[in-house]
Amino acid sequence: MTDPLRPGATIGILGGGQLGRMLSVAAARLGFRSHIFDPGANPPAGEVAAQVTTAPWDDEAALAAFADSVDVVTYEFENIPTATLDILQRHHPIRPGREALRISQDRLTEKTFLQGLGLKTAPYADISYLASLQAALRDIGTPAILKTRRFGYDGKGQARLDSIDDAAHAHAAMQGAPAILEGFVAFSHEVSVIAARGLQGDVACFDPGENVHRDGILHTTTVPARLTPGQRSDAILLAANILNALDYVGVLGVELFVTSDGLIVNEIAPRVHNSGHWTQNGCAVDQFEQHIRAVVGWPLGDGHRHADVVMENLIGTDIDRVATLAAEPDTALHLYGKAETKPGRKMGHVNRIRRLS
Amino acid sequence: MTDPLRPGATIGILGGGQLGRMLSVAAARLGFRSHIFDPGANPPAGEVAAQVTTAPWDDEAALAAFADSVDVVTYEFENIPTATLDILQRHHPIRPGREALRISQDRLTEKTFLQGLGLKTAPYADISYLASLQAALRDIGTPAILKTRRFGYDGKGQARLDSIDDAAHAHAAMQGAPAILEGFVAFSHEVSVIAARGLQGDVACFDPGENVHRDGILHTTTVPARLTPGQRSDAILLAANILNALDYVGVLGVELFVTSDGLIVNEIAPRVHNSGHWTQNGCAVDQFEQHIRAVVGWPLGDGHRHADVVMENLIGTDIDRVATLAAEPDTALHLYGKAETKPGRKMGHVNRIRRLS
Questions:
Q1: What residues of chain A, 38 to 97, have a C-beta less than 8 Å from chain B?
Q2: B67, B169, B264, B298: which is deepest, by most CB within 10 A?
Q3: Is residue B33 predicted with pLDDT exceeding 90?
Q4: Is residue A283 part of a domain?
Q5: A195 and A335: one domain?
Q6: How far apart are CA B113 and CA A78, in angstroms?
């Protein structure tokens, strides 16, 4: 399929969390139907989707029926089992494509890919044994951080090492999973670029946002980010470089460390990204609609910002502040409809709208 | 129920057209579930709602089951049968309340109500017989417009009279339905105020928009409207006057003619209004969320505008322009997911975002 899909077509979305939920609303705004596939019952996205399938990732019959009912397949998270993708790909294109998933599912592969493009990353080493961890620590130094190569997010599957003595404990915490050691980067702040590439190879970027994390989870994104004009260009060019190398279709999040030596790529996410939520209230076409436009073969929005925005995540019991937040002027609430509040769980976010700077 | 509803509660929406669809999305953004009740199969709102009931307005069992599943009832259009409301009201509050519906369901009652508040309307007369039409035409003059008292919208159920000789033909066109004759008003332009009143009696208005109609259907709304500061105050004060008189809860649309003698009320609509769609891209809290906030007892948004907007309706085959519109910068598309295009049918709208004036 290379012709643009027309309104009325159905977009299959793998994963029914808050990102799937906001993708589904964006799809509806363009006249598309959404069909959510999620192993968990009552996914948040199901409340705003035309159709929901609740089935495990390895349920071949459910996957085939899902595929039959949609016109294109996309996803809200990168850790989809390869076998699932194999089944779906027999029916419909998966956008973004398999290469982006293959690379971003493994931190080691991702780092190698980025360095292959000539981009800077933190120093890293492949860790299979305690001995290789100890050797790598001598090479990279401390502090350093040991991460599972796969299935990590929001600081999960990570252990910080402040001296070589922490090696045994950190290695044990990985529970035998393949891991990567990353050296620390001396950076002044973190920014991210939410970039998109269309089916025809056109590229559009939103203005970079500046991210602050708390307890390993994104806390705020502020737009515009503190960047020199040169850094801003670099950020956008390197994002485009990544998109083109992957022959990418859709929205990609690129996290960058700002250092005195230039921009260092922290990680990439082949999907809409928490640090792009500000676009919902700052742009005519937000990151969710941009992603949908790309996967259905429509022209991309140009990423133009008509307001400054500060996005703040509502994590866990932050949701109890909703009554106060609802009364704040120029503040847009976005709640995810999650039934249960848990520590560290993303329950919603607010976008505080400011006059364009 | 006077306590605010909490996220996770369910809002029952009568009517599943585009207004119900956009109300449902706004409800989801605040963490609420929506349950749509509509007699027609596959209503546009159903594609973004947690639940849909397809049943006629007089299906008592379906209405009772619907009512049991929701925490509050609201509606997207004013012509809901009285008997339906009687059944639902046994279970849950209906917001906005019955009085607003009673008045706005009948053009004659509405005009009488508005004049009772000291507001100006077009000259009008109750028409039951051809003889009363002829007498009223002598009194009010021509041109004039004969309208059914009930169930009219978008220019339907209306006949224009340019001389007293048109009386018999126009009267026959009403097919015996009770009617009202309205004199023409010499106005320079039409504006509307989208006003809201909360459960505690708080009132908030969006900036008035200026409306242009084509073939009896809204074509564009431009914000800001051409109004003097005095006219702007008048518009907001009279909207608040109407809201308070009705002990109203929710969003109300007030259409006004701007004349050299001041503002004349054309009509009121006890619901979100086509001329308020611009708020989706100009305000942190749009008219749909404002309505939901009111009916769940939350604080209202303050109506503050952070951008100028020109809204254009996409009527009938306008939908064929989507590919061009999607490529326009600073233009937000909102399509309604309607399967079939018909002449005069509202298929979507665009909001063109401009820098705040």
A1: 46-50
A2: B298
A3: yes
A4: yes
A5: yes
A6: 59
